[in-house]
Amino acid sequence: MRALLTGPANNAIGLTAMETVLLTQLAMAPEQALRSDALEMAIWGLSDFYNNKRLQVCVSRLRKKLTHRNGPEELLATCWRSTYQFVPRMHFAPKR
């Protein structure tokens, strides 16, 4: 399933099926570190602890798309021991 997201400036962000699943998994657990093996199981249905380059590439491509469209703030964080985390930006309305 491919996805077309809309960024803050109403700019379209096209995602591949793998990027869509990855972002969905990370967004369902905001600010929680998710292990690489769990993400690989969700995306590909298998985990290869010793060769997780495909996940690193998928994260890198998704990070590049989100950073390019949403500005310099990092939305995907790489944490210690091969875990990844979604760090959403919060936008608050000014007080009246």
Your description of this structure?
- This protein is an alpha+beta fold and 96 residues long.
- The protein has one domain: Orthogonal Bundle (Arc Repressor Mutant, subunit A).
- The protein contains three helices and five strands, in the order ββαβααββ.
- It has helices spanning 17-27, 36-44, 53-70, and strands spanning 3-6, 12-15, 34-35, 76-79, 83-86.
- It has a three-stranded antiparallel beta sheet with strand order 3-5-4.
- Strand 1 and strand 2 form a beta hairpin.
- Helix 1 crosses helix 3.
- The radius of gyration is 14 Å and the shape is globular.
- The N and C termini lie far apart (42 Å).
- Mean pLDDT is 79; it is low at 91-95.
* Portion in strands: 15-25%
Order of helices and strands: EEHEHHEE
What percent of residues adopt helix (DSSP H or I)?
A: 25-40%
**So what's the overall shape?**
globular
Largest beta-sheet characterization? 3 strands, antiparallel
Give keywords.
single chain; 96 residues; alpha+beta; Arc Repressor Mutant, subunit A; three-stranded antiparallel β-sheet; two-stranded antiparallel ribbon; 40% helix; disordered C terminus
Summarize this entry quickly.
Helices cover 40% and strands 19% of the residues. It has 96 residues and is an alpha+beta fold. Strand 1 (3-6) and strand 2 (12-15) form a beta hairpin.
